[in-house]
Amino acid sequence: MPEKVTKEKVLVYVVRDGRLLVFRHTDYSYEEVGIQVPAGSIRPGESPEAAALREAAEETGLADFKIVRKLGETDYDISPYRFEIQHRHVFHLELTEPTPERWMSKEDHDGEQEPTHFECFWIPLEAAHILQSGQGALLGRLAA
């Protein structure tokens, strides 16, 4: 078995009117990827705050995000999917622009790979237990 590496990641909770912004990948089955919140890698030289804002924009196609606060950090072992530990910096973000209930978005990956397509939508915070890969681990801190 390969040795696990630790990767620095961000994960964001965008909350509006008691609802959480989530998405599903339309290029993969639900069984493969589940329901997720915006998240991704911190680039070399990038702050976790900048990465949180960038990932939220890239995956939703929206731009008017503001950091409310950092909720904390947590580790998640994503094996056997990949042999890595994700050290996640988790942020609460606010979205100031209006959105529909559902919309389609895509991330272009700076042309390095095929675009990833998303269906974005809002769910009640009470239903956020459906998030995959431990993404809901710090949701309880939103109320703190």
Walk me through the structure.
With 144 residues, the chain is mainly β. It has a single domain (5-143), classed as Nucleoside Triphosphate Pyrophosphohydrolase (Alpha-Beta Complex). The chain is built from two helices and seven strands, in the order ββαβαββββ. It has helices spanning 30-33, 48-60; strands at residues 5-16, 19-25, 39-41, 65-77, 84-95, 102-107, 116-124. Strands 1, 2, 3, 4, 5, 6 and 7 form a seven-stranded mixed beta sheet that branches. Strand 6 (102-107) and strand 7 (116-124) form a beta hairpin. The longest helix is centred in the middle third of the chain and has 13 residues, at 48-60. The model has no long low-confidence stretch (mean pLDDT 94).
The helix/strand class is mainly beta
Envelope shape: globular
CATH architecture: Alpha-Beta Complex
Poorly predicted runs of 5 or more residues: none
Question: For the report, how would you describe the main beta sheet?
Answer: 7 strands, mixed
Radius of gyration: 15 Å
Q: What average pLDDT do the residues reach?
A: 94
CATH homologous superfamily identity: Nucleoside Triphosphate Pyrophosphohydrolase
Q: How helix-rich are the residues, as a percent range?
A: 10-25%
Beta content: 35-45%
CATH class: Alpha Beta
SSE ordering: EEHEHEEEE
Number of helices: 2
Enter the CATH topology name: Nucleoside Triphosphate Pyrophosphohydrolase
Distance between the termini: 40 Å
Q: What does the oligomeric state look like here? A: single chain
Number of domains: 1
